[in-house]
Amino acid sequence: VYARLLSLPGGDEFERRVKSRSCSRYATPPRCQQAMGLENELAAVKRSVHAVDAALAAYPTTLEEDEELLPTLSGLPLSLVTLRRDEKVVLRWWQRFFKLALEGFSIEPDLLENRTAEAFGEFSPESAYLRVSLPALLKVEREAKVSA
Length: 148
Known about the structure:
mainly alpha; 7 helices; globular
């Protein structure tokens, strides 16, 4: 949602696209709920993959190292490592999500749906983007290219 806005070109093109779409430019922070074209969506997903990868790389330990360390701790160190581990669990979920979304730009919709079901469950509400929104955008954009 926010990555879409951050991935727009600057200047007049930014203004034109924001005005022509359902973007809340005065929201805090500004955001675009709907996809703004295939190129922008791909850039937004790549931006998201990079942000999550960078966040995970910034930690001094891996998730697996934290899990190995936890049984040896108590008190405040236990709480701090638990918090760090839990942050990584969330980031890993988003990493899987965005990497699958990135892959979705280059695979068939049926394969994307199967991989989404394997990764997140068949009826996971979080995966609606991967099962519905992304395939619909790809279909519309590809049909528009063929018509042009």
